[in-house]
């Protein structure tokens, strides 16, 4: 009887095992790589958060310091200090010193404006203009203070013999919020022309206020200036007509 030969089970190929090991290692490597990326991004985010928190704390600290300095400067500027005997010029100098420190800590619209005013009061018009210009560059959207800045700028330009720039700034004042300050710009321009001796243009601006802005708080001033100038002109005309030249009369002969 023939002998039955038992078949031996086929052995798994080592190649297949190696492939499984390789796939597992590759998966582990990918997991490790992703973990590294996650850790890296978490670290970055945490770093940003820490920096932001530190900056916020620093900014808050600087804001508090700036506010404190500004409040102190305000008291000197308006004389709200215990030493009432302190001369006005010295108060402005002290206010300026504090406003400059406030601006160094944190720039605010009010600190810049009052720093410029302090220079202006001390007749340092060039440095006053630097503060006002800086305000217009940094806080042009502040429509509450900007009109005041333009008015002071115009005056400072006039004090430094820059008449054209002074008039140009008043034009910018007139253009704020669809001309809400047009009448103020006109009266300041009229005063400017009066101060520089151009009475004709000054009267033109006053008359423009009377005709285009009759409800303006400046209309009374404009009317008074126009009336005074017209009265002066009438008086001058009357004097010129009554003072017609006549023939010279001979002097009486001296008694002998």
Summarize the structure.
The protein is mainly α.
Q: How would you explain this protein's 3D organization?
A:
The protein has 256 residues and is mostly helical. Helix content is 73%, strand content 0%. The protein is built from 9 helices and no strands. The chain has helices at 14-77, 88-105, 109-121, 125-138, 146-159, 163-174, 182-195, 199-212, 219-242. Helix 1 (14-77) packs antiparallel against helix 2 (88-105). The protein is elongated and about 120 Å long. The N and C termini lie far apart (202 Å). Mean pLDDT is 82; it is low at 46-59 and 246-256.
Provide the β-strand percentage band. Answer: under 5%
Q: How large is the count of helical segments?
A: 9
Number of beta-strand segments: 0
Measure the end-to-end span: 202 Å
- The structure class reads mainly alpha
Mean pLDDT: 82
Q: Helix and strand succession?
A: HHHHHHHHH
Cα Rg: 41 Å
């Amino acid at each position: 009887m023939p002998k039955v030969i038992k078949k031996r089970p086929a052995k798994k190929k080592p190649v297949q095992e190696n492939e499984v090991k390789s796939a597992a290692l590759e998966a582990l490597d990918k997991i490790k790589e992703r973990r590294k990326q996650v850790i890296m991004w978490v670290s970055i985010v945490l770093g940003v958060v820490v920096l932001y928190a530190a900056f916020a704390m620093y900014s808050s600290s600087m804001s508090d310091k700036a506010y404190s300095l500004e409040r102190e400067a305000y008291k000197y500027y308006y004389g709200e200090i215990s030493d009432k005997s302190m001369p006005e010029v010295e108060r402005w100098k002290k206010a300026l010193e504090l406003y400059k420190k406030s601006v160094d800590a944190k720039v605010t619209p009010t600190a810049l404006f009052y720093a410029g005013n302090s220079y202006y009061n001390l007749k340092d018009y060039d440095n006053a203009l630097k503060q006002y210009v800086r305000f217009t560059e940094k806080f042009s959207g502040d429509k509450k203070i900007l009109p005041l800045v333009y008015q002071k700028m115009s005056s400072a330009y006039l004090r430094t013999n820059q008449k054209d720039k002074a008039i140009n700034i008043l034009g910018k004042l007139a253009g704020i919020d669809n001309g809400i300050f047009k009448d103020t710009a006109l009266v300041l321009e009229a005063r400017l022309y009066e101060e520089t001796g151009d009475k004709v243009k000054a009267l033109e601006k006053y008359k423009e206020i009377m005709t285009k802005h009759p409800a303006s708080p400046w209309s009374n001033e404009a009317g008074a200036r126009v009336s005074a100038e017209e009265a002066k002109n009438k008086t001058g005309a009357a004097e010129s007509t009554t003072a017609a030249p006549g023939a010279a009369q001979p002097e009486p002969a001296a008694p002998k």
